[in-house]
């Protein structure tokens, strides 16, 4: 190897190390799959790290940022096993206790119910000829009150489920509130986590995004904090290269 080649390799290695350090500083973790991207297209990798730094530069605490990213990777619509270990370690390094990580993992599992939120109204419309008597008002009232007490809010979007599947909604209320028993995350952070997984490019569930933005605001979240959640969630787009570039190599 010539002296010139050695110098170029040293410079390349130093540049890669600098990108890794910048990414860790911004996001609290590093995905080793970015190494292949750096080698193949360092300019693109640098542009991504600069984008990550811009997303990380905002009012959210270091802990909140790591939890938003963890939630996006752990959500059932993404399930990013490659990034998840780093996200968990990043949250722990930021001072989140293990029970806080567990609380996020349990919290984002509520995403599955959106199959019912989306599907039931469609099914009701597509089967107009069938009689579907609604549950007794007293039962609906009891189930709604439990939901409001345990979840801290109510939204009209739950109305079809309440009217036709009150028993399921009652069980879902217990399931969706179970993560809060860890009592690590404050109400604002929990809502910001839910904003992230609903707005993520792998889900884009607008009704839920609106509900949880509204809830986050009610718990003291600022406009800047909510927008920063959107910025952090937008970083998931790099996964196309994280998946494909190593295969190309």
TrEMBL record:
Q: Which GO terms describe its molecular function?
A: peroxiredoxin activity
- Residue ranges of the Carboxymuconolactone decarboxylase-like domain? 166-232
Question: Could you identify this protein by its name?
Answer: Carboxymuconolactone decarboxylase-like domain-containing protein
Q: Which organism is it from?
A: Spongiactinospora rosea
